[in-house]
Amino acid sequence: MRRMTSYGVGIGWRPEIAGFVAELPGLRFVEVVAESVHADAPVPPGLAALRARDVAVIPHGVRLSLGGAEPVDADRVRHLAAVAELLDAPLVSEHIAFVRAGGVEAGHLLPLPRSREAVDAVVANVARTQADLPVPIALEPIAAIFDWPDDDLTEADFLTEILERTDALLLLDIANVYANARNRGTDPLELLDALPLDRVAYCHVAGGAEAGGIYHDTHTHPVPEPVLDLVSALCARRRPPALLLERDGDYPAADTLRAELDAIATASGYPAVT
């Protein structure tokens, strides 16, 4: 497996900014929403051009519902595996969350109760997924706008047990660390230090905004300074991992996107990709 730790700063590939991404001279990896790629069709031209430059492309799933009480859908797993093969991906990633129950689609990534039963459900679904994947999987804890009552485990213990039992990698979303700590009124550095940082495959960095007293991980706002500070704190604690800027709408001008990428590079000590 290619080690993501050497891939510097990347960006989420979206059709709306494909032209901008194609012009980044120092780019070494991108991430694409797995469900947006047709596994039985040619690679989208923008992604094909990046692969020709030896830019790694990571499929990022959003619909597996690994935290659901029901077994993960086999067709969705096969699609993720096929996209990984199509893109010659070094790994894939998905969320520790559920998105459906009883055939009803929520349309959102929903948090799990941090219970032993939820750990067992995630572990079982990750094992089912790993059995059909040609590459490793990295699991991403989500930004939760609420916690279930009477949780058995802390967020860090919940995540650590899942990763240890599945031997999966960690997709650490720095913006989610900030969001969860802010919404709970806790110190994000304490959460960061409690996480199994040795399992980090790569990291997300994104912006958000507060609404109704809750900080939302929007992916449509600029990356705030506290999140960049957490990037620096992470890189001071371990070898800097690959870092990816997430933008999923309200795309700013190219100069603004370049400035965000440069700010992440500066916070981590990586060279600029622009």
Automatic annotation (TrEMBL):
Q: Report the superkingdom from the record.
A: Bacteria
- SUPFAM superfamilies according to UniProt: Xylose isomerase-like
**What name goes with this protein?**
Uncharacterized protein
